[in-house]
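Appendix B. Raw example, untouched.
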Amino acid sequence: MQRAKALHADGHGPSQIADELNLSMETVTWLLTREKGKAVPRDVLIDWSGVSSRAGLLEDLAVLMADRAMADGEEIPDIGVVVGIALSGVPLATLVALQADACLAVYHPARASQGEKKVGSVSGNFAEISGQRCLIVDDVITSGKTLREVVGYLRGHGATPVAIWVIFDKRGLREVEGVPVTSLFRVSRLD
């Protein structure tokens, strides 16, 4: 709770805090307001900064993600572009793209949009996605909303999402909108 309040005091909005702490918006709202009578959200805090802050360990994760996909009998998909979800998925996506000899694109989720109408977008500073087979990479699945958003965006812009790779999955998803999900770890609460 202290970390959420400290981030808020530094000027971060709830969506930024949710991204930073890998928590749902519901949990962040609860942490910041502590509404009387409202039940504590069911969520799990994941702090993987001990790995995410070290390039060598991130590179090991990129290799591990590919190995994990193959361990399930999946083949590494034939991809042209690895799409990293901003912000935390981008460093890992960069290393996965290097391993796969693929191009890199960066997706900015709608929640990060500054406009009145919240829309997601692919950065024009990276690879073009139209006509490409894409592998989506992120760090954590919290609700699955962002992944549904990016899958829809890619399809709407002429790309074919073929797989989703994440480190942590809080929902136990096997697929998102028909796109298979491979996670290194599934996180569950026992209560």
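End of appendix B.
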